[in-house]
Amino acid sequence: MMGLRARAYGLAALAALLGGAGYANTAFAQQQQQQQEPPQGWFKACTKQEDVDVCNVQFLLRANSGQLLTSVNLIEVKGKINRRVLQVAVPTGRLIPPGVGLQIDGGQTRKIEYAICVPDRCVAEAPLTDEVVASLKRGSELTLTSVNFQNQPNPMKVTLQGFTGAFDGEPLQQADLDERQKKLEEFVSKNNQEFAEKLKQAQEQAKQSQ
Question: Most Cβ neighbours (<10 Å): which of 102, 113, 129, 131?
């Protein structure tokens, strides 16, 4: 999976280098819009780890390249250790002091502080309360806003449709989780191949138009 991520990043970076060719930029935008979205939606995954049971209700928003745009995780740990936490992951290159703004529909924006950054993402964390869960169940859309290193807000919209069913329902079985991961990997691989071919075509057309 790390190889797929690295390849997706490399192709995206190469596309950015064509910023001077207006035709190429327009072609890429149209082609990307025509591609299908990777597997998304709210789902619950549970596992038993030694003396605790861990359940995670999550939503992963990815670009067509498979790159993570944002993810929401409502994690509950029960057993020898009991903990409930809300985590929001965003890409790296963020300004740390603003944290991540969480807004449900048109309500008040709540700031969530960053807890850790790793090579491919930064994670903001806050206690998961019954009030937060109830608000998510009542809402229709979640807006998560981080601020990039250029001091520009990057709002991401996450639908809350399907959240209640995932939170209150049964977790996905391991076979379903494996199938979901397989579809994502196949999607990323297929899109990267198509993107590479279209990139080459756009480069050739851009050279001919000069």
Answer: 102
